[in-house]
Design goal:
Blueprint: H1 8-17, H2 22-29, E1 34-35, H3 36-42, H4 48-60, E2 64-69, E3 75-80, H5 82-85, H6 88-101, H7 108-121
Antiparallel strand pairs: 1-3, 2-3
Length: about 140
Amino acid sequence: MDFKDMCPRYEAAMAILGKKWTGLILRSLMEGPRRFTEMSAYVPGLSDRLLSQRLQELEEADIVERRVYSERPVLVEYSLTAQGQALREVVEAIQRWADRWGPNGAPGELKNRVRIVEKQMGVKLPQEHNRDRRE
């Protein structure tokens, strides 16, 4: 892999994947299809408007698929396409990095960022995520 020059494909991928909340939305879909309300509950602090916007962007990028079932009431599920499933290794790598380096094992800047995000979301990471995992 050549890192000497910026790759336009990488730049285009990051324009989609690097948006706030997108990584958390993708992570919520890794276990399988979810309804809108399930994703909203999975990602505390994410507004319905922004969740809807991000899902639409991910649909347009062929990363997420929206299925509407004609039931009463109408059931809508979101799932990852094959292209979205291909991001599993990326999501898992980010999780491994987070487990190793943050927040207790994190350098100061990352620790500060974790605290800011916890405050914005009104949550505290569970204790199992706060242990040093440099195994």
